[in-house]
TrEMBL record:
Pfam families, per the entry: GMPPB_C, NTP_transferase
InterPro entries per record: GMPPB_C (IPR056729), Mannose-1P_guanyltransferase (IPR050486), NTP_transferase_dom (IPR005835), Nucleotide-diphossugar_trans (IPR029044)
Lineage top rank: taxon: Eukaryota
Protein name per its UniProtKB record: Uncharacterized protein
Domain Mannose-1-phosphate guanyltransferase C-terminal residues, every copy: 287-421
CDD domains: M1P_guanylylT_A_like_N
Stretches assigned to the Nucleotidyl transferase domain: 3-208
Entry similarity comment: Belongs to the transferase hexapeptide repeat family.
Length: 425
């Protein structure tokens, strides 16, 4: 029996994802028509040996989270539970804090995922690799190639090519270490939890040796999976690298959500072709490339949609509308002949007739092998907003016949005039 753990973080995470994460916990943001975390859950459901999925994070139990958990418990076979940290315990602290629940039923191993990665998880293969390579105290770390420059934004691994062993690990190094990066997907054997106990005890004694007898126990409970576990495990002969050439990306900024949307839609060809919209008759809109249209959305037959578009539930799209490379969130209305390119249209927002909402798409560099999408800051060195996708927050109204270009619009705004490269507060 195996278990899966998804690290979903908490409200002070996902800052680069604002304003979208103001309205919804980031792990529930819909990508390719499903909450981000549901892609992980569905991948786990393909592996019959995974009997339980634990979501670990420090989000308060909001209505959205409760509703999602209630839905997931009914919809999926493995048991699904949310374990809430009392404060941010870091990427490893939650695993240690909930060690009894994780080891209940004696799983032979447990998978751990960062929620903000998107990939075609070859889980069966990864688990098989883990069983064949490691003993009962080992770690398998899923890795992929990145460019030299980009690798430094990730955990970097050095591998012994003959044995597959990870001989060195550095989290976000300042100078180049290796182009092999940590994908945020791991398999841990049970005994790694015992190792965490040593880390916990060390932190505790450091705290007392330092003369700190304060009451903040979260300080000692905070464990970084990357720095406190992976770093010392590298070179010990117990950590192995599973290399993947599958589609992989991180979801940090709104622009990277558009890219992840594209990746997941393309994966539907393999995993779930029925989810992709098909056009071709007079009653349906023209569909270009990969498109997801929710069954409760209303899209006029003269609209042209795609490629890489998600139209979520209760969306209404009028005649002559053009949408490409965008996510249109639940309840949004795109009025007649409006045009939405490289954008995210927030919940219950309205784009007026003949208006144009357009952003600049971020793509991995097509001329560089292994390039990934870079989720840098919002502003460039001279303090200007970097051209990126346009994001309309919740309940934004864009008046008819105006242009909104490369802008971020916070929730509940009424946009009456055209704007370019602006954050509208
Ligand atoms: N439960 C819990 N508690 N989860 C957390 C916490 C916490 O206190 N802090 C972060 N997480 C979750 C996040 O939700 C995310 O899923 C994951 O842990 C990693 O988040 P970050 O700490 O923001 O790290 P990162 O995304 O910059 O880098 C990590 O992922 C890269 C791959 O995407 C590292 O693991 C890198 O080594 C790796 O390359
Ligand atoms: P690039 O290779 O990116 O230059 O693509 P493109 O010139 O085909 O088009 P662009 O990215 O500007 O727009 C994507 C699609 O939207 C194209 O198919 C355009 O025909 C269509 N489009 C662009 N502007 C409008 C508009 O104002 N109204 C409508 N209905 N469609 C538009």
């Amino acid at each position: 029996m195996w278990k899966a753990i998804i690290l979903i973080g908490g409200p002070d995470k996902g800052t680069r994802f604002r304003p979208l994460s103001l309205d919804i916990p980031k792990p529930l943001f819909p990508v390719a028509g499903l909450p981000m975390v549901q892609h992980h859950i569905e991948a786990c459901c393909q592996v019959p040996e995974i009997k339980e999925i634990l979501l670990i994070g420090f989000f308060p139990l909001s209505d959205e989270l409760k509703n999602f958990l209630a839905y997931a418990k009914k919809a999926f076979t493995p048991s699904i539970r949310y374990l809430q940290e009392y404060t941010s315990l870091g990427t490893g602290g939650g695993l240690y804090h909930f060690r009894d629940q994780i080891s209940a039923g004696s799983p032979s191993a447990f998978l751990v995922f960062n929620v903000d990665v998107c990939c075609n998880f070859p889980l069966q293969d990864i688990l098989h690799f883990h069983s064949s390579k490691t003993a009962d105290d080992g770690i398998t770390i899923v890795a992929t190639e990145a460019t030299h420059q980009e690798s430094m934004s990730y955990g970097c691994l050095v591998e012994d090519k003959k044995t597959g062993e990870a001989t060195h690990y550095v989290e976000k190094p300042e100078t180049f270490v290796s182009s092999l990066i940590n994908c945020g997907v791991y398999v841990f054997s049970q005994k790694v939890l015992q190792y965490m106990e040593n880390v916990f005890k060390e932190h505790q004694s450091e705290r007392f040796d330092g003369g700190d007898n304060g009451s903040d126990s979260s300080f000692t409970e905070r464990i970084s999976l990357e720095k406190d576990i992976l770093y010392p495990y590298a070179g010990s002969g117990k950590m192995f690298v599973y290399k993947t050439k599958e589609v992989w990306g991180q979801i940090k900024s709104a622009a990277s959500a558009i890219h992840a949307n594209k990746l997941y839609l393309s994966l539907y060809h393999k995993t779930n072709p029925g989810r992709l919209a098909v056009g071709g008759d007079k009653q349906t809109p023209t569909i270009i490339g990969d498109v997801f249209i929710h069954k409760n959305a209303e899209v006029h037959s003269t609209a042209v949609i795609g490629p890489n578009v998600t139209i979520d539930e209760r969306v209404v799209i009028g005649p002559g509308v053009r949408v490409s490379n965008s996510i249109v969130l639940p309840g949004a209305v795109l009025k007649d002949h409006s045009c939405v390119l490289n954008s995210i249209i927030g919940w219950e927002s309205t784009v007026g007739q003949w208006s144009r909402v357009e952003g600049t798409a971020h793509q991995p560099d097509p001329n560089t092998q292994f390039s990934k999408i870079v989720s840098g800051g919002l502003f460039n060195e001279d303090g200007r907003l970097c051209p990126s996708i346009t994001v309309l927050g919740r309940q934004v109204t864009v008046a008819p016949e105006i242009v909104v270009l490369n802008s971020i619009v916070l929730p509940n705004k009424a946009i009456q005039s055209s704007s370019k490269n602006l954050i509208i507060l």
